[in-house]
Structures are given as C-alpha cells and as structure tokens.
C-alpha cells in the first residue's frame, strides 16, 4: 500500500517500541517477540515469506531484478 496503513489514526515510535524485531535478532529472540504479540513461529515464517515475495515482485516490476 503506497500510502501506508489505513487501519490506524496515528503512528508513533512509542506505539511500536518493543513490538518489532531488530534485524540482528536470533531465532529465539524472534520467537519471543512474535509470541509476545500473539503470533506463532508459523505466523513469523508466513509473514517473512510474504515480505520477501512482495519485495522481489516490486523490484521485478521496476526492471531491477
């Protein structure tokens, strides 16, 4: 979605602190942060795969892949 999320009225750093994984998290840390947000390891894998597929699709549509 080019314009961002439409399901919220505001977006602040304080509202997401501790809810998003850092890029250097290991598997145990990823499992813990996803579980703290009510998501399973299977959810994490599905979301990660979707992100990667979307990124490749966008690059390909721009002729960059």
Order of helices and strands: HHH
Number of strands: 0
Low-confidence stretches: none
Number of helices: 3
Largest sheet: none
Amino- and carboxy-terminal Cα gap: 20 Å
Average of the residue pLDDT scores: 78
Sheet-strand content, in percent, reads under 5%
Give the C-alpha Rg. 14 Å
Helix and strand composition category: mainly alpha
The global form is globular
Roughly how much helix do the residues carry, as a percent range?
40-55%
Description:
The protein has three helices and no strands. With 65 residues, the protein is an all-alpha fold. It has a domain at 24-61. The protein is globular and about 40 Å long.
SSE arrangement:
Blueprint: H1 13-16, H2 27-36, H3 41-61
């Amino acid at each position: 979605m080019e314009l961002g999320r439409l399901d919220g009225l505001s977006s602040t750093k304080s509202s997401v602190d501790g809810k998003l994984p850092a890029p250097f998290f290991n598997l145990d840390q990823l499992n813990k942060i996803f579980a703290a947000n009510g998501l399973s390891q299977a959810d994490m894998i599905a979301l990660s795969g979707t992100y990667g597929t979307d990124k490749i699709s966008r690059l390909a549509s721009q002729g960059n892949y």
